[in-house]
Structure formats: C-alpha cells, structure tokens
Amino acid sequence: MERLEIQRTEKEKLRKLEAKDLERRNEELEELxxxxxxxxxxxxxxxxxxxxxxxxxxxxxxxxxxxxISQEINTFISLWKEETNETFExxxxxxxxxxxxxxKLKLILLETPSYDLQEKNIIQYQGSILELQELLHLKFxxxxxxxxxxxxxxxxxxxxxxxxxxxxxxxxxxxxxxxxKNPRYxxxxxxxxxIGFEIPRILATSDIALRLLHTHYDxxxxxxxxxxxxxxxxxTVTYFGKDEVKSVEAxxxxxxxxxxxxxxxxxxxxxxxxxxxxxxxxxxGQTSLGxxxxxxxxxxxxxxxxxxxxxxxxxxxxxxLSETVSAAQLLLLENAPEKPYFSEENEVDLCxxxxxxxxxxLDILELPPQCKPRKGWMIVEILKEGLQKYTYPPETAExxxxxxxxxxxxxxxxxHENVIFFENPVVARWDAxxxxxxxxxxxxxxxxxxxxxxxxxxxxxxxxxxxQDAHVNMPYQSWELRPLDVNKVLLTVTTVFTEIQIQIKENxxxxxxxxxxxxxxxxxxxxKWMTPVSFIIxxxxxxxxxxxxxxxxxxxxxxxxxxxxxxxxxxxxxxxSSAFAFGWSKWNTVCDSKKVLFQxxxxxxxxxxxxxxxxxxxxxxxDRAQSLKIxxxxxxxxxxxKEETEFHSTLYHMVKDFASKEAMKKxxxxxxxxxxSVCHMLLSTRLLSYS
Length: 691
Known about the structure:
Number of strands: 23
Region (Disordered): 258-310
Structural class: alpha+beta
Distance between the termini: 44 Å
Protein name: Dynein axonemal intermediate chain 7
Family: Belongs to the DNAI7 family.
Organism: Balaenoptera acutorostrata
Domain IC97/Casc1 N-terminal: 2-184
C-alpha cells in the first residue's frame, strides 16, 4: 500500500508539472521565437554580404571577370582561347586566376541557400565551371607540347634524355622525353624525388615522352548535384507549424493594400472631430501599424502612413525568411531514401569514398618534331593535330608473338603532404568512357606510410587518384562544445583515429588543432579563419571528414534521431553556446529516436577549467526539455525527473532554472552571425546522430 501511495503521489506530482508546462508553453515559445530572430537576421546579413562582394568586385576594376555574370566569364574564356604559344610557366601563372574563378562559382552554388538558387543559374554556373576546367587542361597540354618541341635542347648530358620538373602551389609537372631510345634505360626517377616509372622494353625504344601532371585539385570527378529545395519545403513552415508561405506573402500585400485604401479614403472624406479620429483611426492604426500621428487639424501625417507599412512589410519579410531558413536547415538533415546503384563492377562509389590529394594525370605522349638550328634560326615542324597520346598497349598486337609483350607499367607517386590518410590509400583510375573512377586494371599496390610513397602497376596510363573511405572518422566517439570568449566557442570531436578542435567566432571557423594517436599533428589549415562552407570544404579535402551527407547512413551505423528534433536541439544549443558547455552522453544511444540526450553546464569565458565539472543531463524531445535524475556513471537508464526541477518547452528556459544572471545576459547578447555559424557547424557534423 505504501508503494502504491508513493507511485500515486509521484504521478500526481508529474501531472501538476505537465499542467504547469502546458500553461506557460505559449509564453516560452514566444520568447524563444524572439531569440531565434537571430537566424533570419544572420541570413539577411549574408545576402547583403553577397551583394556587397559583387559591388566591391565591380569598383575594383582589376580586369578579372565576375564569374556570376555570364557575359564577363564568356568574354574571359574567348579571349584566353585566342592566346597562343603560352609556356607552361605562363599557363601556371594564369591558372591561379582560373582556379580562383572556379572556386568562386563553386562557393556561390554551395553558400547560396537552395531557396535563392534558380535552375537557370545552376546550369549557367556549372557550365562555366566545366568550360574553365576543360580550357585549363587544354592549355596545359599545349604548353607541354611547346616544352617537348625543345626536348633536344634541354637534354641531360649524362643520359642524353630530357627531364624537367616544374613546381607550383597548385600544379606540379614531371616530364621525361626518350631521345636516346636506349633499351636498357627503363627505370626513370625524377631528380630529388622518389617519383618515377618502370617502363617495358618496347617503350624504352620508342619515340615517346612520359608526363605526370599532378594537379592538386580535382577537375576530373563530375560535379555533384546542387541541393535544391523542393516546393513543399520552401512553402511550409516547419518549425512552428505548417502554414503556406504564400499566405505570408498574401498577408504582406493585403496589409499594404488595406493601408493604401485607408489612406485614399481619409483623403477623400470630410474629417470629423479629433475625438472621433482617436476612436476610429487611432484604434485601427494601433492594431495593424502602431500609433497614428494626428495633426492639429485632425489629419494623419502622410510620412507616418508611408513609414508604418514599411515596418509591417519588414516584419512579415523577416517572418517569411525565418520560416524559409528553418525549412532549409531541416533539409540539411534529410537522409536519402535509396542507396546509389552502380551498374559496373569495380566502379568507385563516390558517396562512400572521396578522392584526396588531387589527380595524377599519367600520359605516354608521342614525341613531337624537335627544334633544329639553321643559320641562326630555330626551325620546328608544328603538327596540325597538336599533342598526341601514344597508345599502349596498341589496339592491334598481331606483330608481337609473346603474350607478355606489353606488361603493366610500374608507377611511383608521393602522397600529397597536406592530406591525411588514416588507412592505406586505394588507387583508382579514371574510366573516360564510363565517366567514373574504377579500381580494376591496377595491381601490386604498395604503400610506405613513413615515406608517403605509393607504388602500383597500371595496364594502361591515364588519370589516377587516391581514395579513402569518407566515413573513416564516423561514428564519433565523443564531442564537446564550450565557450572560449565573447561570441567564440571551441568544438572538439573525438573519433577512433583523431581529435579535431574547431574554433568558431562570428561568421568564421578555424582548425585549432589535430591529434593523431594522441600526438599533435601540424596542418596547413591551422590558424586560418574561413567561412563555414569554405572551412568544411577545406577539411574534407585534407582528409578530415566529419561531415555526413544524405547518403552517409547507408555506410555508418548511426544513432538515428528525428530530423526535426535534431534541428530544434542544434538551434537552441547554438543560442546558448556563448555561456554554456555541451557534451556527449552515452545515454543518447539508449533513448528512442524522438528524444536526444546530452550534458550541459554553465561555463562562462575566462572561467578557470574545472577538473571534474558538474554536468547536468538533459533530455529534449523538440517540444519538452527536462533534467534527468541519472548521470554518466549511473548503472541503468531512466527518464525519471531530477528532484526539484520542472518541465520546460525549450532548452533556453530549462537551463534558465539553474543558470546565473550573467550567463543568461551573455546568451541574450550573442552575435547573430556567431549563433548562425555555431548552428551551421552542429547541423553539418550531426553530433547527436553520428556519435
């Protein structure tokens, strides 16, 4: 009986707490809505920044085109096509501008929200990217031909063959011309490197050149699809209901029309006494547009009537933008319904793997006619068809009796110093016909991690790249988000192989440190502040991928959570991040998909680090937050409410119960761009589902 009485008392207590929560829910959600106005405000600032960057480019007048304007980029491409006889060094110098234009176009596609991107713009930008990529590679081919025409004048005195290495920050060229055709000279090593080839006898006696063009970028892999928001996402409110966006737009036009009609009516009627104006016009003005200014004669001031509709229009515009931003954030967490299908065997799944370290273009080229000195002149025969590839093995091999007359070519490459491979890299070759990467036709792969040297044999030369599992660092083992200073936080993500620390301030992110096997690892990205999108791209290209995609759940065992619950949690965590630390909880994997669990504690910047901080375990379902009785060291999971705590509709009001006034003041004074950047990083890492 006593036990039943205790249970009855507990149920009654919970019922009262739930009733109290429901009673103040609207009030709490309204306050949260006001705080979350920082998200549309940050989006508005980003829009203004994009427009400002276009204006700055316009007034710079530095001769470089604006890649977003088709006339300018098309003129640039046409003029460069007309330039001839450019040396490799000249093309390399020009490539810096070309790569910058390509990067700008890619950033426009990635940074512009899907609801602001039109299909025609996507087609235009991607078309410009492809044209620039193709033209750049063509220019490198022409420059290589010009260099090979001078092979005889650049020949090495010892071997009699030509060897040339040209290095740049974006491109490295290794080229060898077989001038002597010595059948015993089959091992080729470029000076001061371990890079080279082992060629068969038939190539050692042929008029050929070997070229390794290492582009530190990847212009071979097809461009990925640009995420576009479906109509149902852009026209619904996903955070506080499901009202159509059109109704908001209609409300704007309706309010403006009503105001216009009201103004017309007032100008045409005979104005009555001032008291009547107060009763009618004054009341109506207050309900829709705020207080109405009345002149001594009883007339409303025209300037006020014009200004107030603008204020209403702005409010409705921000409401619409808020709902659209929420829909776009939800779209970021949407999982693809089907795994990609591949018709060909050995085709690389680019949803599972990622190419790192750029592309190595391996080519056997026909040696062009050489320059010949004649009476103080240099005479050269220029072939109309340009640089030609040497077919190996030949398409018809009837004249060769032995089966192994065309053995594979051994290749030795150095792995790019700025790329991290957590496992042995996989070599993939480009299939020009199928337009994808494949892993067949490659044998005898050997990797020396200490020397960063990889050796393999290829049946036929062509573009190759090194690939790594994109999800090698997923799921995460733990994570923590804590404040460092005013509008500045540190996000730490720990995986099986590494610990990555990211600093976030205002609208910028920076790689603070990397640890590999508990040892600090230096990276070229450290101490470089970038916008969140640029930062994510840079980390991925360095092999530090902690950013799941819509297909990642097919390759990683995840702790699935409802996207709407995740979005609400990340938004509110970002709002609180300037004064509260958040951390991983082992119990998050135990609760169901409709709830998320994490640890939280007040952590004011400048505060001395606490050795054993006192964390509070919170459970959040999107519309209810509660503090749990258990902690990380408890033996079993329980949703029992912590003593002397209550239910709340938001995380903000939940932590307010135990937070200091100083902490809550910092939260309310947070910079909108900072909150938006923290939220973007949380949405991109999906800490609550992938750890």
